[in-house]
Specification:
Layout: E1 3-9, H1 16-25, E2 32-37, H2 50-58, E3 64-67, H3 77-89, E4 93-96, E5 102-103, H4 110-147, H5 161-173, H6 178-185, H7 189-197, H8 199-209
Parallel strand pairs: 1-2, 1-3, 3-4
Antiparallel strand pairs: 4-5
Helix pairs in contact: 3-4, 5-6, 6-7, 7-8
Length: 210
Amino acid sequence: MATILYARVSTTDQTLDHQRTQAEKAGFNIDEVVADHGVSGVSTSLRERPQGKRLFDMLRRGDTLVVRWVDRLGRNYDDVRGAIEEFMRRGVIIRTVINNMTFDGATTDPVQKAVRDALIGFMAATAQAQHEATKASQRAGIEAAKADGKTYLGRKPSYDHRSLQAVLDMLGSGTAGTSEIARTTGLSRQTVLRIKADPAAASAVLAAWA
């Protein structure tokens, strides 16, 4: 029986190392980490992600799936609820680092099952609602900026001129991989990948904020 941590890395404050450290501090002994980087939790279901698909292939009865919170599985109500219910049918235990929630299919008591299923539904709905609230806030910011005749800059970049140049130098040398660059500069792997994909856009964003 294995304990698997699944991480969906989508923002600078949700790095893979951060999610693993949180889990270990919460008392989980992690046997393996499975992670998807830069995938949407709304438009891409767990089954459609490269490593999310792997979870369905590797998890067996008695295994424990650990996630920071249910929003790592997705931000769509039906997808999150469906994934958790399928894992429970397979005999997999799902545990969250935040709030220390446990979901499994062991109970046969109808009242306990009803409470469990209601809680799963509530948490899945909350994950989607949080995403929708964030998007609504972003749209409001864009509209407010337009009304004031300003350009909406989006989220402030996590890098500065020095770290951006360091990334570009290491990419240019070809001697370091993405993960090594991220560790050296203190940036997330996702940020390094964005800079690598479009250095000009990364510089433009930084210049706009400056």
